[in-house]
Amino acid sequence: MIPIHLDGLSKTYGEQPGAAPTVTVDITVQAGEFFTLLGPSGCGKSTLLRMIAGFVSPTEGAIVFGDQDVTRLPAHKRGIGMVFQNYALFPHMSVADNVAYGLKLRRVGGSERKAKVDKALQRVGLSGYGDRRIDQLSGGQQQRVALARAIVIEPEVLLLDEPLSNLDAKLREETRMQIREVQKAAATTAVYVTHDQAEAMAMSDRIAVLADGRAHQVDTPRRIYSEPATAFVARFIGRSNVVPGLVRDAASDTATVRVGDAELTVRRHPEVPVAAGQHVEVSLRPEVLRVVGEADAALHGIVTAKEYLGATAMLEVDVAGSSVAVSTPDIDVEAGTRIGLAVDRRAGWLIPESATGRA
Length: 359
Hints:
Helix content is about 25%, strand content about 35%. The protein is an alpha+beta fold. Strand 16 and strand 17 form a beta hairpin.
């Protein structure tokens, strides 16, 4: 297992209409880590992955595997395994021959090659499928063949480019944990690209949230959810309310913020300067808000919409001109109802308006 260092890595495609955006990052992926590049379409995540793979040359910066600078090394000499979005399997070959392809290129002998192929197929749950044709497999099985082909060469770096995007929702959930288990068993460092937040949160040791060609935050799934570095991260990960506020007082890791007609005590990052009188934004996840009586409420608002979800409901509430989502057990309220909302102490998270993200 080796770490991956992306040192001032940048790719610029030019200013012409339709050109891909510039992407610039400084990121270190730890040895053995399952690291995810997450962001919306066009944010630069696939460009980053292709630079790591050697398919795209960076404009500036360096790519270092362990202590080896591979920035100008051809893709086939980087010792990577890659799983593509469309799997890129050979339809005229059997499952075993597809998996063995990289070993043949490396001139691995017949008996050793067969043993490695059998082991790779066993790891992905396809023992006994070696003689089947690719067109005899389901989409999920094809995805596992592609994964087996990537790990059979025992790569130190495993790259995965949205490998679950062609599967239905249920199969995606079933397959994502298997990918993680295979990566652990293979003892390799993995970089995974996706635009699916649930996928990234469930699978990753750490996540880089990308937008506008930069990393807004590089952190664990838990911290990205509960302590977003920017308003973009708060809105992009899960569902969040980002409401404007004014700082009244600041302590080492909390602040008192005026939101609408209420004052809330919210958590904040101790290394990000905050001062009284500063305009900020506060991230409030829907589950930290509770519908209460008017007398016990910190915030007041008018229900504008209700989405029934079975045991729970999602309310949209107008609070001082801001639309706020509230997750609640299903209650008998309709649009137009005035309600009170309580906020769990220290449940909010302060985002300075000038926040640029942290890595």
